[in-house]
TrEMBL record:
Domain AAA+ ATPase residue range list: 315-499
Entries under InterPro entries matching the protein: AAA+_ATPase (IPR003593), AAA_lid_BCS1 (IPR057495), ATPase_AAA_core (IPR003959), ATPase_AAA_CS (IPR003960), BCS1_N (IPR014851), Mitochondrial_chaperone_BCS1 (IPR050747), P-loop_NTPase (IPR027417)
Protein name (database record): BCS1 N terminal-domain-containing protein
Family, similarity comment: Belongs to the AAA ATPase family. BCS1 subfamily.
Molecular function per GO: ATP binding; ATP hydrolysis activity
Compartments in which it is found: Mitochondrion inner membrane
The reaction(s) this protein catalyses: ATP + H2O = ADP + phosphate + H(+)
Topology relative to the membrane: Single-pass membrane protein
This protein's record includes keyword Cell membrane: no
Amino acid sequence: MAFNSFLRGALPPRGANISHDGNSSAGNGLPDGILDTLSPLLEFNPLMKLFMLFYNMAGSHLGIDPTYILTLVAVVWAANKLWGQLYTSLYDLARQYFMARIEVSDTDDIYLHMKKWLSSQPAMVNSRSLTAETASKGAWDEDESDLLPSRVSPDGSGVYLNFSSQEAKAPPRFIPALGLHSFWFKGRYFRLQRKLDALVDMNPRANGMPQVKDKETLVISCFGRSPEPIKQLLQHAKEQYYLDHQAKTIVRRPAGQGMRRYGHRHSWQQVADRPVRPMRTVVLDDEQKVRVLSDMNEYLHPATPRWYANRGIPLRRGYLFHGPPGTGKTSLSFALAGVFGLDIYVISLLDPSLTEEDLLGLFTSLPRRCVVLLEDIDTAGLKRSEDESSTTPSQDDKGSEEQGGKEAGSKDRGSKKPRDKNNNELDRRFFDLARELKRGSDSSEKKGISLSGLLNAIDGVASHEGRVLIMTTNKPETLDEALIRPGRVDLQVAFTNATQEQARELFVRMYEPDSSITDKLPVDLEDHVSLLPLTPFSEAPPTPFSLSSDKDGNMTDVSGPTEVDEDAVPSTTAASGIKKPAPLNLGPSTTNAASLTTSSVLDKSKDDQHTETLRPSELAHLAAQFASKIPSGQFSPAELQGFLLKRKRSPQRALMEVDFWVKGMLAQKAGGSKVLAVQ
Ligand SMILES: Nc1ncnc2c1ncn2[C@@H]1O[C@H](COP(=O)(O)OP(=O)(O)OP(=O)(O)O)[C@@H](O)[C@H]1O
């Protein structure tokens, strides 16, 4: 049916209900002929159809002149528009004169703090305009163990853990969507604007084309002329962010090549945040531990920078941890970072994408205090190039001390052995040419880090000061002497295969109940820090010492002007009025075991239903027996840990099987086989 005929049918007869002037003869409020004119339009526009229906219904049934409705709608619309404009102008005015604001760019860490804080605010999460993000749990985050029932019998049958739905169960994280939001914090009204701008990055990419990059900004504003409330809010968000990081060590590695170009925060990416490794879980000679701890404590003391600056010494401290694989070099690095609450920045010099320029950029974008871990520097293939080796170490070192650093490749300009014969000049030129040609042909494949590149990053003029550098190696003898000279490596720590005492400690640590480890954690950390000299250097200047060790791992001073004996650290502590650390609690010694009550050894963990429980005295006894069966210096702590881990529920079984294991392992080592005959 044609719409206008339907409409006419639906309309009241002429003149019915409505009294108005004679011009509106259609009785539906429209002038004559208007419907006929509009009908082609009306046929096709559903909105218009609806409007006309409503228009006529209002006229015929409600007895209201539809033109009044139209006028009203127009007035409301105009008022709304006017109010909108007025509001915007007033708001702009208020913002300009009565509001403070702070912008946060997504390139800054504060952006992460704010995002996390916003996602934890119920008022924001219940907002109507949100962005959902997938929030996966980290390896160390607690799981709801009730959701993972497991019953496995000794014959291997039963129900195994199943994590197939773990991602499905993880709730998404909600943050305010792009746009304008408002919220209250500490009784104050805040406005939040999330905005996205497209920026053209003029740094050409590999294909030579500039790329467009999204850049997000958070604009936080509040009423008042002072930005103080916003600063407090940002501080609060930051504190909340780091609240659960206190017992964690954050591990960072160089970001991907693309991100590294942006420098600073983008140079590094967080790869893990793991629970702090308690120092007592690293089984190492107490004296060695205290030496490193006190040395680092002195270095990190707030008074140190001034002390160093007054004497013109670059503010850097380097450690070399050397010893066979699996003896605890990395573990000690992590434990140290945990004690001092520092983040760890791990660099692998074997990373093929890492250039010397990148390395320099990475070192310059380190935070004020941190631990930089350069692992396995021997395997990094760092060698002096021919021209580097032609520079004598003494000249090299002297030069770098005087300059406080050096430019990359400065060694290339080192002095050569004098040649007095003119005909040798020809040889030299020929040699130079050959070397240049060789360098040219090698350059395509040799993209790694050269020794001079590494030295330049570590202590070049542009290099960051304040960091703690830890280098680890299995083969200290292969290292270039320039890399480990005092000033670059200030303290060497030797790690050895496990002694019987270390074997005993490892045994106790493996079988002591969880509660005694976790309950003691804060005390443990406090113990360490309180043992260390805290006197500012103005009162008791630090005694720089550098230690090397003999083949048995005994440490001797190799650099300090004063001889460092066993009492070097305790005497400093004595000067500061802090007790000599006689009763050290640096390892899971029998003291820990002996301090356990019988009830506390009962492991109540649901998962440990089959764990043998021991009295502290029993544990100490078994540990001593176990240690007596381990030949000193034959096995790394990692190997012993591996053996114990496979029998982690049964110390008795470990004790029973250890003889067989030791025999098998010794035979395997003698045969040089890498395949385990016993496990
Ligand atoms: N001294 C130790 N005390 C406690 N645990 C140790 C010790 N040495 C090794 N381990 C254990 O052995 C494993 C390997 O240790 P770690 O990575 O620290 O050794 P590493 O010396 O750095 O080895 P690599 O030279 O191969 O890098 C870790 O699980 C660690 O817990």
